[in-house]
C-alpha cells in the first residue's frame, strides 16, 4: 500500500475511502485486540468483539480532525463493547442460577462441574448465532428492549425483529437439543 500522510488518512476516513479505512484497521487492529483481551480475557469472542469496535467506528457519523481522535474513539468503543459483552455474560450466568433453583433435583445440573460444562455449552450456543440474530437476541433478552425499540435502533421493521427473535430461539433450541438438553430446560432457559 502506498504511504498516506496523516491528513490524507483522516480526510480519507471521513470520506470513507477504502485505502484510509484499511490503513486504520491495519494500524490499530492489534491494539484493539489487546484492549479486548485486557477487558474480557482470552476468549473465542475476542475477534468478534474487535470487529464490532471497527463496525462502530465505520458507523459513526462524526468527522475526525486528527488521527488521535480516531484512536481515542477505538479505545472508548472497545471498552464499551467489552462492558456490554460482560454484562450480557452476567445475565446469562444469572439465568443458570435461576435454573439451579428451579431444577434442584435435575440430574443434568447436579454437580458444579456439570454446571460449568452446561454453562459453557449454552454460552457457545448463544455465540453461534450470527449477525443480526445475535444482535437482536442481545437487545431483547439482555438489554430488555421492546420490539419497536429494537426495530428503531436497527432500522428494520418490528415484524423482522419478531421473526428474528423466533429464529434465534429456534436455532438455540436446535443447537442445545443436538447436545442432549431436555426441552423443558431449553425452554426455561431461553424464555
Q: What does it look like?
A:
With 191 residues, this protein is mostly helical. The chain has two domains: 1-83, Orthogonal Bundle (Rna Polymerase Sigma Factor, Chain: A); 103-191, Arc Repressor Mutant, subunit A (Orthogonal Bundle), CATH 1.10.10.10. It has helices at residues 6-14, 18-40, 46-59, 67-102, 112-127, 131-142, 147-154, 158-178, 183-190. It is globular. The termini are far apart.
Percent of residues in helices: over 70%
What fraction strand?
Answer: under 5%
The whole-number mean of residue pLDDT values reads 79
CATH topology call of the largest domain:
Arc Repressor Mutant, subunit A
Number of DSSP strands?
0
- The CATH class designation of the largest domain is Mainly Alpha
Using the alpha-carbon principal axes, give the shape.
Answer: globular
Tally the helices: what do you get?
9
Give the domain tally: 2
Instruction: Summarize the helix and strand pattern as letters.
Output: HHHHHHHHH
Low-confidence stretches: 183-188
Q: Which architecture of the largest domain does the CATH hierarchy give at level 2?
A: Orthogonal Bundle
Structural class by sheet pairing and helices: mainly alpha
The CATH superfamily name of the largest domain is Winged helix-like DNA-binding domain superfamily/Winged helix DNA-binding domain
Q: Major sheet: size, sense and barrel closure?
A: none
